[in-house]
Fold these 3 entries.
Entry 1:
Amino acid sequence: MNEMRSSLPLEAMSHAGRTQATQDHGLLVTLEGLRGIAALCVVSYHLTTTRLIPSAYLSVDLFFSLSGFVITLRYFNVLRSGELTPGRFMIARFLRLYPLYLLGTVLGVASWFGGHYFGHNASRDQPFNLVAIFAFFMAPNFSTGASYLYPLNIPAWSLLLELIANLLFAYNIMIWRRILPITVLITGLLLIFFSIDAGTLDFGAEWESFYHGLVRAVFGFSVGSWLCLAKERVQWVPKISPLLLCLMFFGILFCPYYSLFGWASSLIVLTVFPALIIVASRSEPSGLTSRVMVLLGKLSFPVYMLHVPIIAMLRQVSHLFHLGEGFVFVSAFPGVALASWTSLVIFDVPLRRRIKILSRT
């Protein structure tokens, strides 16, 4: 969910690989815009209990599919050729995710202490020291009786499951094309079953729904990868304005699918999202629209990783000074955007650049 605007793999790629990635990058701008809008919708979902955008949780499914599409585009050939080993691919993926994950965890710790000392703390089901020890190693909370995988920054659950999907991709790369259809079919059927049982696809963050979330991640990644490998065979794709595609996606999330029938949300993920991705991959914006979509893509990962602890701290400030929920609502989006941009400029990008230099020495 975070690879579209990143640099090429830390490991050296062939000239042909670099050229192909460069040629394809322009076609990813609309996908960047979709990913940025999805991240903002997730913020709105966690901002109030009234759920301003009822189906914003489906943004995570789009993240998984976009990740599968772009990682396949960037890494499939170099992994199959042996130019990049699965182990080094996984190291590169971990290093790509960890800096902002770590920053989100640090903010989660700050939020925990703020809530503890100012009397407005979300309930924690485990002692803080155990939660923190697991979290800083990017390990889920294995403490007995734990509820959330990552109590200090709940959205991190999707990073863990995405890494598992990456692992399956890298270590099965030689047979990946052959196993994709059956993987998509089986996980798609399981997704329908789970959504009927739960009445929603909003699961995966807690241990009791871990395997449900894993199916969600593997399906999303696999269908995105399949779309990438099959995109050249799709001879006719309608030309739709990138801005219209983003508005369509935004509108899709406004429908409360859980109130229709049990598997309505899985129907969207199984049919509408793949169609949206394949059309968006062939749509290239220009001018101001392109610049805005690139900016949204750059901010999407920090927004996703930082918004929960930032909103929690804003609630603590509101509670301390009796400012009311209106303060949180008004300040959340600009606060998250500012923190995301700052973290990107002074922390994430410089650190990734430094890691890239060190990897070449």
Entry 2:
Amino acid sequence: MESMEWKTWSNLPLSQRDSLPDLSGIYVVVDAEDEVWYVGQSINIQKRWQGKGHHRYTQLSRTHKKRSYRIYWQNFPSHQLDEKEQLYIDLFKPHLNDTKVKKYVKKSIQPNDEIKRLLKVINKKTTLFPDLRSVVIGYYREMDEDGTVEIKEYLSIIIVINANDLYGPINNSCNKSLTRKGKNIKGSWCVYESDCEIDDPKTEPVRLFSFMLPEVVYQFVCYPSLIENLRQHPSYLQQVEIQGQSVLALKNPDIVPSLLSPSSPILENSFTKEKIYLEYRAKDIKPIDDLL
């Protein structure tokens, strides 16, 4: 008996498994290099492979694009299946038959993982942002009420971002936290409001997306002009590591007020509340180096 006897059998690509025949027999999973990966039996081969029902399907599907699996089969009466299966396992020596079935459990996103992901995204260089996409300008401490109406000190890290990232990854993450898929980051996002100590009831407060962890709050301020102005002064920046991610940060936050002038006429009347907030907060901001 030939060790590649399966080559003479009928076969279909793994992706067409729903078209397998409604009969009993032995089936063999083989890749494009003629490596045998699995040998099995069934009284109904079609039902055995229907949908994602086969216990090896998930494992095989993860490498199908690379290996191009095919399912070969041969009809045998049901009373011969045990004998034939063992015969072909011994003959074909499949890779998976004596191994445990791998279970792939998708990890639930945790708050720490989400802020790491966001920091990575908003620091990734793109065609639109080839050098500077966001910048950590520093941190400040503030006393405020927590969820139990207790007074607590918060450490807030201020990250200036562009409009694309505000309406893209930041907004998407916030929306995800409101869904079942994002249940593990539910409550991590909040909207921080500040009147910037402007004593005028007609003045709307600035509202900022903030991501809260037990010990630190990440405050995202959209002010593209600051980023554009910093592009002209790369020496003001340094590379630091936050949450295991490499990010760009301002060396000296004392220069923040000098970076707030609109970088173009188009931006002159945009994000004015964010500008007022950064002017107001500038006196409190300390270098991020003090935390690292």
Entry 3:
Amino acid sequence: MIRGNVFLLLLLMTLISCTTKDDVVEVQPKGLLNEIEGGWVLTTRIVQYEGETFVEDLRVEQCDSYNSYSFENDQDLQLQSFDSENDCQAVLVQKKWELDSTTKILEVTEVATSYKVVYKVEEVSKKHLKLKILSEGGDQLEGTGFDVYLILVK
């Protein structure tokens, strides 16, 4: 028994002594912010209600394109959407975005109209972003029985 404990102690000491400062990854406050910055394509909406899940492909079919978002590091956000009624011309909408990295709350406000949508960042990786809509234009979705998610990809 003592021999086993000594072996375990030596193994632990070896592992600890081999760890360098380079092996330690610290989570920076801007980590989530850095993951979200950049260009994203809005591909899917998922609606969950009363145990049912509905998945919608958000491709603008007439234009064979998806709307895209560009989250810039100065909190500017450009939405590029396609007008299917106007020869699929690209339309740019200026927005502002603000992220609370602690609560993972993302607020997106249209510059021209001050229309605000509040999201919670559910998942984020280098190629995948899942947002839950908490409120839209002041209307709360929380507590309504509906959960609405947007899926964006790089």
